[in-house]
Amino acid sequence: MAALIEPVLGRVLPAGSVHLVAFVLGFGFITFLHVVFGELAPKTFAIQEAPRIALLVAPLMKFFYYVFVPGIIVFNGTANYFTRLAGVSPASESEESHTEEEIRMILTRSEETGHIDVDEVEMIESVFELGDTIAREIMIPRPDVETIPASMSFPDLRSVVATGTYTRYLVLDEDGDQPLGFVHAKDILRVSETETELDESMTARDLARPVLTIPETRRIDTILADFQTRGEGQMAVVVDEWGVFEGIVTIEDILEEIVGDIQDEFDTAAQEPSIEKRDDGAYVVDGGVPIQDVNDRLDTRFESDDVETIGGLVFSRLGRVPVVGDQIDMDGYIIQVEAVDETRIERLVIQLRE
């Protein structure tokens, strides 16, 4: 290449520098062709047509692999020997793995390019968050749990199950404090069909099945594993550090953390805590809505280490039993109590402070 350029440069440059300049120009031109047509362009084709290109070059790659494998063994073996002497374990590209954060970045990029649907990305990210979520954050709180006393007679129990909307009912002791187990609707039906003469003394305690009991700090991925390995139904009783009954977690609650709300034939919109925006820009929020859901919807930064719901947050800030009309000022918002059920905040209004 330098020989082709020298005659042209000889007319304008001193004789002593012609060869050097011609060499530099020739080397630069060859490097340009190599980078563009030897690396960048082939790489672009390979990315766009990955399966076809891979099948095309695979036979050649395999051939040259076996040709050079003796040299590969010698070089890798020598390098690994000296790295071991230095106290470093040999690494291999085939053993490369990705961290959770790297996988999230890959998912985000794949979503942006349209290779993965948004819903699929959200589900995968929800799986990652299972290990960061505890039972207290997703449990059905005690006031919302449908329970029956252990002393309830079989006829009354059958009536409750027949008119209710659940298949499992938590059985509490006579004091109404400690869960003893749960009654399954199938057990009621089975007893009704098989017993010709029902024992009038039969109660909910007699039909109660064992129920899984978990601490409120247990991670929900671990709870899901418990449901898979233990034969105690699809319901778990959540207790606090003193063993006091706090609520329940079902397998549906965990699945909803991955796929979103699951509506069955008995669910109604009124049963789900909601956030609704009014025409004046204020938000009407059920007291049972998790603080994180409020933050996501309103782009706020409410937080608390002691409570999980927005109603509980307002209650703790008030420091007393709430009444309708109570309000607090937080993070640039006015939060006003709109409805109360005894000591429980049922509904709030959240609006920007003027």
Which secondary structure elements does this structure contain, and how are they paired or packed?
Elements (H helix, E strand, L loop, with lengths): L1 H8 L5 H34 L1 H36 L14 H13 L5 H12 L5 H4 L1 E2 L5 E3 L4 H10 L4 E5 L6 E6 H10 L9 H4 L4 E4 L4 H10 L5 E5 L5 E6 H9 L15 E3 L5 E4 L4 H8 L11 H9 L8 E4 L2 E9 L2 E9 L2
Parallel strand pairs: 2-3, 5-6
Antiparallel strand pairs: 1-7, 3-4, 6-7, 8-9, 9-12, 10-11, 11-12
GO cellular component, one term: plasma membrane
InterPro entries: CBS_dom, CBS_dom_sf, CNNM, FAD-bd_PCMH-like_sf, FAD-bd_PCMH_sub2, Ion_transp-like_CBS, Transptr-assoc_dom, UPF0053_domain
Keywords: CBS domain, Cell membrane, Membrane, Repeat, Transmembrane, Transmembrane helix
Key words describing this protein structure:
transmembrane, CBS domain, five-stranded antiparallel β-sheet, Uridine Diphospho-n-acetylenolpyruvylglucosamine Reductase, domain 3, 12 strands, cell membrane, membrane, transmembrane helix, alpha+beta, 354 residues
SS elements, strand count:
12
Radius of gyration (CA) equals: 34 Å
Low-confidence stretches at least 5 residues in length (pLDDT < 50)? Answer: none
Question: Based on CA inertia axes, which overall geometry fits?
Answer: elongated
CATH superfamily of the largest domain: CBS-domain
Please give the CATH architecture of the largest domain. Answer: Roll
Straight-line distance between termini = 76 Å
